[in-house]
């Protein structure tokens, strides 16, 4: 890593982290008015956390309005329904309790609440004119980093795309509460996919062209913590120590990439996610070794450093060998946690590749350390079939 300090602007919510940190919610939101609690359909209700939040808020005399209709990969129409419900409920703040999909859906509801609009759709393409109402992000997975980011990835069916519909510092949560006991309810498949998303984000950020001194510090630390704990969290979801480390690793991965950028994997993941309905973490994990091979020659020193941090057996090995060891380690990890390694396993065929490449653009792709031209992307996807 360079000894020079690279300038940065570092944005972040207030972060409350730790076992049972959810219990502090009442004192944090005491004067905020009525709450809108946005969740997925049933997992948090079944696990008791929806009721727990309502009870904790009741103790500080706060009414809760529940919107529990967010499905994975939410659409703009869903946000419009939620926004209408928020306006009718006359709320003072928004709580998002869920994975990345729920948090990304909840973020614009809070941020746009004071704008002079009646649907989220009509604000598309416009600039924020004022701060919204406070947003409290409570992630239930360790993965997307949405609790600390300023954007919201949503499916816009009529445009045939999934992308960040809004990106503004005013979207950042006021408070992020990370309680590992909540993530302990997630099944192995979601733990594996979301955990790999966090690892991919940290690896992409560590070699990103937009990385800076503080994102380097966070991303390399995230790689070490996630790399050493993901398998355990997948195999034994009740291992609260592994869950806590994954929650922390995912948090600092989110802080890293939201300030230091991503790369070609995230550039590809959005069009593939939209066109083929594949969970975000699954496609990110699948592409990781292929893109690492593509980037290897340009960032082998950084790959070697990651191998050292992960305690891979790299003594007396050259930089090149260390980088290769890292990629092998990643391949094995993906297999060990039972995620797919070939696009055909996700029903993505050779004939689908040109449409994917055509829609792959944006800031993540541009931050990739090696210029990922459409020709290279095609080659990479062909090798992943
Ligand atoms: Fe991601």
Outline of the structure:
The protein is of the alpha/beta class. The protein is 49% helix and 12% strand. It has 2 domains: 14-182, 3-Layer(aba) Sandwich (Rossmann fold); 187-383, Dehydroquinate synthase-like - alpha domain (Dehydroquinate synthase-like, alpha domain, Up-down Bundle).
User: Residue-averaged pLDDT, rounded?
Assistant: 96
Report the radius of gyration as a whole number of Å: 20 Å
- Percent range of helical residues: 40-55%
The protein's oligomeric status is single chain
How many E strands? 8
Give me the CATH superfamily of the largest domain: Dehydroquinate synthase-like - alpha domain
Shape: globular
CATH architecture of the largest domain: Up-down Bundle
Task: Specify the structural class.
Answer: alpha/beta
Uncertain spans: none
Ligand list: fe (ii) ion
